[in-house]
């Protein structure tokens, strides 16, 4: 069946899923508790500068950090925003937020939209913009592998916390890039420590039974 995409485009779309992520955890008071190297590269603040500050002041995730008493706090959110990168360039940011449960705050994922280009040309030059979204990880051929690699992007936290957050992400919906009728899962590109792989396998097995 004709997908409606140029012949080379599916490969470019698949490659687009492999983009570095900024990762942060914001506590129930809205304060940053964890901040990854990727977040520093996207937003220009080191972990030392970011931890303890309000996440909404550092990241353009309007509506994604709803307080726990609001109905929106029970659902993940995603969006786009334009910010000035540390190098002064305007950067298109794609973001995803996940509520981590009662009084546990949010996980924030963010990606540089400039990574969705090749040679300066958009991945979908004549089509709609790429949008962030959510999907069940089990619908993708490498769904188990995606789940196993997910703990490796969590910034400097215990195995139990990484496992808990990973399970929550898999429960609410894996982060994807949406191109018209296509969904491409984000693929963590950071090297995953061996223990993180064990955590991911356990979470993947649990999520598959949901």
Distance between the termini: 32 Å
Instruction: Say how many strands there are.
Output: 10
Overall average pLDDT = 78
Q: Point out poorly predicted stretches.
A: 1-11, 117-125, 191-200, 202-210
Query: Can you tell me the overall shape?
Result: globular
Oligomer: single chain
Strand content: 25-35%
CATH class: Alpha Beta
CATH names the topology as Beta-Lactamase
Number of domains: 1
Which radius of gyration do the C-alpha atoms yield? 17 Å
Protein name: PAS domain-containing protein
Domain PAS: 23-53
InterPro entries: PAS (IPR000014), PAS-like_dom_sf (IPR035965)
Report on the structure:
- The protein is of the alpha+beta class and 210 residues long.
- It contains seven helices and ten strands.
- It has helices spanning 9-16, 37-43, 47-50, 55-58, 143-149, 159-172, 194-208; strands at 21-26, 32-35, 77-84, 90-99, 106-112, 117-118, 121-122, 131-135, 174-179, 182-185.
- The strands form three sheets. A five-stranded antiparallel beta sheet has the order 2-1-5-4-3.
- Strand 4 and strand 5 form a beta hairpin.
- The radius of gyration is 17 Å and the shape is globular.
- The chain starts with 8 loop residues before the first helix and ends with a helix.
- Mean pLDDT is 78; it is low at 1-11, 117-125, 191-200 and 202-210.
- It comes from Streptomyces montanisoli.
- InterPro entries: PAS, PAS-like_dom_sf.
């Amino acid at each position: 069946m004709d997908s409606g995409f140029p012949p080379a485009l599916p490969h470019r779309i698949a490659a687009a899923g492999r983009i570095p992520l900024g990762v942060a955890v914001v506590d129930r008071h809205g304060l940053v508790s964890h901040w990854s190297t990727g977040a520093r590269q996207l937003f220009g603040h080191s972990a030392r500068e970011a931890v303890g500050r309000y996440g909404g002041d550092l990241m353009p995730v309007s509506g994604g950090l709803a307080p726990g008493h609001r109905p929106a706090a029970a659902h993940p959110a995603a969006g786009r925003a334009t910010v000035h990168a540390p190098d002064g360039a305007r950067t298109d940011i794609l973001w995803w937020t996940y509520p981590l449960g009662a009084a546990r705050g949010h996980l924030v994922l963010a990606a540089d939209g400039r990574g969705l280009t090749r040679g300066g040309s958009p991945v979908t030059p004549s089509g709609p913009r790429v949008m962030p979204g959510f999907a069940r990880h089990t619908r993708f051929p490498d769904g188990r592998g995606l789940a196993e690699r997910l703990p490796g992007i969590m910034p400097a936290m215990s195995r139990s916390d990484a496992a808990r957050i990973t399970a929550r992400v898999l429960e609410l919906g894996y982060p994807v890039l949406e191109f018209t009728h296509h969904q491409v899962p984000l693929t963590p590109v950071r090297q995953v420590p061996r223990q993180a792989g064990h955590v991911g396998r356990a979470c993947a097995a649990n999520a598959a039974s949901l």
